[in-house]
Amino acid sequence: MKVLMIHNKYGKHSGEEAVVEAQMQLLQENGHEVITYFRSSEELETMSFGKVKAFFLGVKNNKSVREIKKIIKEENPDVVHIHNLYPLISPAILPIIKSFGVPIAMTIHNYRLLCPNGLFFTKGKICEKCTGASKELNCVINNCEGSILKSTGYALRNFWARFSGQYQDYVDAFLCLNEFQKNKLIANGFNKDKCSVIPNFYTKEIIDEESDFKNKKYVASAGRISPEKGLPVLLSAARKLPNIPFHIAGLMRPGYEKELDIPDNVTLRGMLNAAEMKTFYAESKFLAHTSACYEGFAMVFPEAMAQKVPIMAPDFGSYPEIIENNINGVLFKPLNSQDLADKIYSLWNDENKIKELGKNGFDIVKEKYSNKAYYVLLMEAYQKLI
């Protein structure tokens, strides 16, 4: 099978980029030919008035349309798999692809088809106003991007995609990361027969290894460090538990550290490579994930479970689908640092419980989130389209 992978990369490497790379590698390892059309948001930095042009290019980029048309004529792919189209590719390529009779699958990494900023999160809290009566106008009224120009651009871009029906009419399969996300699309007018769930997967070989519990010495947290990730909740819980160490791995959004009050028992580890992350998980008792927004499927979940690390997560959005309370982790009340602190304190010295939750998580990642499980679901989706 020949697959054309289309993706607009972000300025910095992200979990979404890692998923795209892993998906390509998995297809190639199983004998499929993968051709790519990638653009990068970093290109805007070299363009004159790049940030202004970004809006217009997000509506229609004639260069991308020409290049996609050329690739399809020359390569004749069996299926096109789309990830992110903004800002340099644009959904204007979708009717072009369909004019050649090629089916289109799209992985839904976030909520951008419904929310201009893709997060359902603004001003420090959950927001779904852009699915309401005023739709995308709310992005401008709330100034969700902290810049009226940028907020307006995002709003108009989403308005045009919705008004023209480019996604709904031309994408044949929306591959959601969880049921919660799938149901959000359906509730907002997307064809339920086009929506299915294919969660992210653990990209490496899953090896059953035991680590000495005596070496486990902190509560871990991992991922991008930015406002929607709810770090103040974790820091507040840590402040209530001064005798328990917390280690946080991940890239800090520039300037965000100035907004944080970091207690003495919290260590910021920065960005760690793959080998360092393996050690990071091995030395943690459990992972605390305190996101304040709906996420798709955080890659730290299968990574932690593959290392037999239990997970604490907020009891909302898609998290209860992935973290089953008292099975492979513990759920806490969203944004409630006291409840999180209570759950951490209760579990901290319970070696048997930590091992039980970790073993269950390991079994779950093998069964549901392995590369083999992902490949089966992806092939079923492709074959259905073809």
Give a structural overview.
This protein has helices at residues 15-29, 50-59, 62-75, 93-99, 137-141, 148-164, 166-170, 179-187, 231-240, 274-282, 300-306, 319-322, 337-348, 351-368, 371-385; strands at residues 2-9, 33-40, 79-82, 104-108, 121-122, 125-126, 173-176, 195-197, 218-222, 246-249, 266-270, 284-288, 311-314, 329-332. By secondary structure, it is an alpha/beta fold. It folds into two domains: 2-201 and 371-385, Glycogen Phosphorylase B (Rossmann fold), CATH 3.40.50; 213-368, Glycogen Phosphorylase B (Rossmann fold), CATH 3.40.50. Helix 9 (231-240) crosses helix 13 and helix 11 packs across helix 14. The longest helix is centred in the C-terminal third of the chain and has 18 residues, at 351-368. The N and C termini lie close together (10 Å).
Question: What is the topological layout?
Answer:
Layout: E1 2-9, H1 15-29, E2 33-40, H2 50-59, H3 62-75, E3 79-82, H4 93-99, E4 104-108, E5 121-122, E6 125-126, H5 137-141, H6 148-164, H7 166-170, E7 173-176, H8 179-187, E8 195-197, E9 218-222, H9 231-240, E10 246-249, E11 266-270, H10 274-282, E12 284-288, H11 300-306, E13 311-314, H12 319-322, E14 329-332, H13 337-348, H14 351-368, H15 371-385
Parallel strand pairs: 1-2, 1-3, 3-4, 4-7, 7-8, 9-10, 9-12, 10-11, 12-13, 13-14
Antiparallel strand pairs: 5-6
